[in-house]
Amino acid sequence: MEEIVKLEGVTKEYELGLIKVPALRGVDLTIQVGELSAIVGPSGSGKSTLLNLVSGLDRATSGKVFVAGSDTSLLSSSALARLRLEKIGFVFQAYNLLPVLTAYENVEYVLMLQGRPAAERRARAMQMLEVVGLGGMAKRFPRELSGGQQQRVAIARAIAAEPALVLADEPTANLDSKTAAALISLMVQLNEEKGITFILSTHDPAVMKRVKRTIRLHDGAIVERPPDEEA
């Protein structure tokens, strides 16, 4: 199978004054095209850091990160921004919708940044809202939508440009259990029917049960099982 993400010996350290705090320690990881994977572990285990490195929002201290065939360590800031715009969709814990834009306009925004024609943008944005079950709410602003509906708009925005990869950082953290279950079902459906590659970070057991692969992080390293489960 084709690789979409590959990490080789990746470490990440943050400097707090004179102290260097390790967030990731020698991570090796390969994600294949079409996977639905979850990065799991307790708070502080390195989940968000790993997603930030894959997205190019942050750079590794050492090691290599490959995304869609590109070695991100060799890319300039502008090239990384282009990679994110063309290849990666994002679903954030806090939704990150633009409050002054309608649901339709939020979904259309990435397509506009890509320079797509207006007619194509309109058709694609409406199609994606239909896919996530919000076709009748295109003109509503984020403040007029529930948390679950806002997260569905975020998913529509993430997949509108047909990215190679969608990264979702704790996508169910702010949702009730029923809404969270519906959201994960939508991601599973999009993965199975459209072949979209998803990498989620989560500590939600309900999410872990639905994904095809679970990758466990503990103290910045990938482990087979949590230390408290080891024999």
TrEMBL record:
<protein>
    <submittedName>
        <fullName>ABC transporter ATP binding protein</fullName>
    </submittedName>
</protein>
<dbReference type="InterPro" id="IPR017911">
    <property type="entry name" value="MacB-like_ATP-bd"/>
</dbReference>
<dbReference type="InterPro" id="IPR003439">
    <property type="entry name" value="ABC_transporter-like_ATP-bd"/>
</dbReference>
<dbReference type="GO" id="GO:0005524">
    <property type="term" value="F:ATP binding"/>
</dbReference>
<dbReference type="InterPro" id="IPR027417">
    <property type="entry name" value="P-loop_NTPase"/>
</dbReference>
<dbReference type="Pfam" id="PF00005">
    <property type="entry name" value="ABC_tran"/>
</dbReference>
<keyword id="KW-0813">Transport</keyword>
<dbReference type="GO" id="GO:0098796">
    <property type="term" value="C:membrane protein complex"/>
</dbReference>
<dbReference type="InterPro" id="IPR017871">
    <property type="entry name" value="ABC_transporter-like_CS"/>
</dbReference>
<keyword id="KW-0547">Nucleotide-binding</keyword>
<feature type="domain" description="ABC transporter">
    <location>
        <begin position="5"/>
        <end position="231"/>
    </location>
</feature>
<dbReference type="GO" id="GO:0016887">
    <property type="term" value="F:ATP hydrolysis activity"/>
</dbReference>
<dbReference type="GO" id="GO:0022857">
    <property type="term" value="F:transmembrane transporter activity"/>
</dbReference>
<comment type="similarity">
    <text>Belongs to the ABC transporter superfamily. Macrolide exporter (TC 3.A.1.122) family.</text>
</comment>
<dbReference type="InterPro" id="IPR003593">
    <property type="entry name" value="AAA+_ATPase"/>
</dbReference>
<dbReference type="InterPro" id="IPR015854">
    <property type="entry name" value="ABC_transpr_LolD-like"/>
</dbReference>
<dbReference type="GO" id="GO:0005886">
    <property type="term" value="C:plasma membrane"/>
</dbReference>
<keyword id="KW-0067">ATP-binding</keyword>
